[in-house]
Every structure is written in structure tokens, then in C-alpha cells.
Design goal:
Length: 400
């Protein structure tokens, strides 16, 4: 009996659109009825939305306040620093994407996003410098998506494996230096970091800090040492039993009252601490579920090969555990990004908070639909990018 390799199997012929519709949407009479009813509901809702968007909505609220949505009260003469931060992040992210999973669609998507950015700038009557920055980001993205596969084919794998984390680590400090100032740049206080800038910054830092803390808590909960296990369980259960709004209130309002008067913690730092500690407790449970899914035989086989407990955990158990819970972890990250909308409770004007201040302007009172539709699209865009990156990472780890 001969085995047929899956790679040598003949591919099934492509399914036509009519066949796909008959098989998925009109397979039975009740599926056909449900499809028709759903299409009718979508038609009614979509028609009403389009009529409102093109005949009733007043998009001048976005045109006049786009800078406030994106960077808040960041000094106008220092906007170039925000553009440079965006350029650096886009360059590093596109280079990493080109190395991890090169795909022509990514370059096409970068071109489409660049065209959309130029269109938005023209609608809001942006300056020539804004056009140059957008073109630079689009060009560097397409170039790095091509440069990534070239580097992967010619550079040693060990260099790329060690170099990319160092590159992202340096990028993090470069971003903080450009935004906060110092070392040759004028200082900018964090209380004027507002809008989308503050939302993205707090979310990214909280995600980066909560992940290792969550992994350590998950390992501590499975530890054989009673003290470590008890402390980990206590922290996880207490934090998971508190609402995020309460933790942010404690971090933003109560903590300055408890600390000595000479200790002054930055409000953004307190918010990041609250988000990090809250998200780490939930990530710990996600990672613990992944650890429990790894068969005990994997650990025993690694020990039989002579690996010490640290190597068994780092090379055998954790990679399998994290791979199995990637969707849950990314779901937690997406939830954390959306939870930044609660930062206005402690006086931080993030994306939702800046929207409220814009709606308080006399000429834009009552323009809730336009404003909240816009920020909803921004939230959806960032969450979708995280979800898309998660799916690509899963396919790469599965070897597909």
C-alpha cells in the first residue's frame, strides 16, 4: 500500500461563484429564505446609512478637527516628531512583515492605504509636508516588503532572530525620546499627549508589558512552591474580580493620595500601570490554559534528553502553549486596546475623550453620528490589523 504525499495530491478545480452560492447560501429552502431575509435587512440598513452619509451628515466636523482627533494639543511646530515616529514604526513593522511572511498582497495593501491617506489629506486640505510624509511612509513600506525577503535569503537566520527584537527594543526608546523630548529636543509634557496618539501609545506599552507579566503569573500559578502559587492565585483572582474602571480610578485618583507628597507619578504612567496589571491577570489564565494543553509526555521526553527545567520550559512547553492560545491572547490585546476609552475617567484625553471635547464646540453640537462613526472606524482599523496579524502568525506557525 503506497502513501500519497499531501503535496502531490491533485488540486481540486476552482469552484465557480454560482456553485459556491448554491452550496453555502441556497442549499436548502430555509437557508435560501434566511439568505433573502438577511439581504433585505442589509439593503434597508445600508441604504439608510448611505443616504445619511451623502445627504445629511456634515463632515466639516472631521475636516476642521482631524489634527485634534489624531494628536490632540500636540504643538503644531513639533508635529514633525509625530510624523517621524509614524515613519519609524511603519518602516520597522514593514521590514518585520517582509521577513516573517512575504506576500504580494501586502505591497498592494500598502499602496491602497497610501492612496487613501493622500485622499484624506486632500479632503481636509492638508499641507504639502503632510503629503510628503504619507508618500515617504508608503514608499518605505513597499521597499521594506521587498527588502525583507531579500534579507531573509541572504542574512544568517541567527542574525535575524536576534536582530529583530533588538531593533524593536531600540524603536521603543526612539519613539519615547521623540515624543517626550530631551537629549537635544524640547521637552513635551505628557498631559498634551491626546487623541489617537495617546490611545495607541498606552495600548502598545500596556500590551508589551502585560504579556511577560501574564506569562510569569501563569507559571507561578502552576508552580510547585506554595508561596509563589498562592501569591499568583491571589493576584489573579483579586484583579479579575475588579472592574477595569475601578482599577483605573485607584491608579489615577487614589494612588496620588496614598503616596508621599514628594513622589509624583505621571498620569500616563499611572494609566499604563492600571491597564497592564488588569490585562496581565486575564492573560495569565489564557496562558495557563495553553500550558495545560501541552501533553505531559512532551515534558518527560525533554527531561529524558537531558534538558534542565528552564530549557524544558523555554524550548518545549511554552512555544506549544503559546501557539495554542494565540487567538485568546490577541483577543485580550484587542480588548485592551478598546479599554483605553476608559482613560478619560482619570483625566486623560484619549480618542474618545477628544471626541467629547470636539462635540462640545458650539458649531458642532449634535454631530455625534459623524464623530463616533469616525472614531469607530479608527478602532476597527487597529483591531482588524491585530486580528489579521494573528491569523498570519497562526498560518506561519502551522507551516501553511
Amino acid at each position: 500500500m503506497t502513501l500519497i504525499n499531501s503535496k502531490s495530491r491533485p488540486k481540486s478545480p476552482p469552484t465557480s461563484a454560482l456553485t459556491w452560492l448554491r452550496r453555502n447560501l441556497f442549499s436548502t429552502w430555509y437557508n435560501s429564505l434566511l439568505t433573502l431575509v438577511s439581504l433585505w435587512i442589509v439593503y434597508l440598513g445600508g441604504r439608510g446609512l448611505l443616504v445619511w452619509m451623502f445627504s445629511q451628515a456634515q463632515w466639516t466636523v472631521l475636516q476642521a478637527n482631524l489634527r485634534l482627533f489624531l494628536v490632540g494639543r500636540f504643538p503644531i511646530d513639533q508635529i514633525w516628531r509625530v510624523w517621524l515616529v509614524a515613519l519609524i514604526i511603519v518602516a520597522v513593522a514593514s521590514f518585520t512583515a517582509g521577513i516573517m511572511q512575504p506576500h504580494r498582497r501586502l505591497a498592494v495593501g500598502a499602496g491602497i492605504v497610501t492612496a487613501c491617506g493622500l485622499g484624506i489629506i486632500s479632503l481636509v486640505k492638508g499641507q504639502l509636508s503632510d503629503v510628503i510624509w504619507v508618500l515617504a511612509m508608503g514608499g518605505i513600506t513597499i521597499l521594506n516588503l521587498r527588502l525583507g525577503p531579500w534579507s531573509k535569503a541572504r542574512l544568517p537566520r541567527s542574525l535575524l532572530t536576534r536582530g529583530l527584537p533588538i531593533l524593536w527594543f531600540l524603536t521603543f526608546f526612539a519613539v519615547l525620546w521623540l515624543l517626550s523630548g530631551g537629549l537635544g529636543l524640547s521637552s513635551i509634557e505628557t498631559n498634551i499627549w491626546q487623541g489617537l496618539l495617546l490611545t495607541v501609545l498606552t495600548a502598545v506599552i500596556s500590551i508589551a508589558l502585560s504579556f511577560p507579566i501574564g506569562v510569569l503569573l501563569a507559571l507561578g500559578r502552576r508552580s510547585s512552591l506554595p508561596v509563589i502559587r498562592t501569591l499568583s492565585v491571589f493576584y489573579i483572582e483579586v484583579v479579575r474580580g475588579l472592574p477595569l474602571i475601578g482599577i483605573l480610578f485607584i491608579a489615577g485618583v487614589m494612588l496620588p493620595l496614598i503616596l508621599p507628597s514628594q513622589v509624583q507619578l505621571d498620569s500616563v504612567l499611572r494609566a499604563i500601570c492600571g491597564l497592564t496589571l488588569f490585562s496581565a491577570a486575564y492573560l495569565a489564565e489564557n496562558v495557563r490554559g495553553g500550558l495545560q494543553s501541552v501533553p505531559q509526555g512532551q515534558t518527560e521526553a525533554a527531561k529524558a534528553l537531558g534538558l534542565n527545567p528552564v530549557l524544558v520550559l523555554g524550548l518545549v512547553v511554552l512555544p506549544q502553549a503559546l501557539r495554542s492560545v494565540i487567538p485568546a491572547i490577541v483577543g485580550q490585546f484587542i480588548g485592551l486596546f478598546k479599554d483605553t476609552s476608559l482613560l478619560s475617567i482619570i483625566g486623560l484625553v484619549e480618542l474618545t475623550g477628544i471626541s467629547r471635547s470636539i462635540l462640545a464646540q458650539p458649531r458642532f453640537i449634535g454631530r455625534h453620528g459623524e464623530v463616533y462613526l469616525f472614531i469607530g472606524l479608527l478602532y476597527w482599523l487597529f483591531c482588524y490589523l491585530m486580528s489579521m496579524g494573528s491569523r498570519r502568525l497562526e498560518r506561519q506557525l502551522e507551516g501553511k
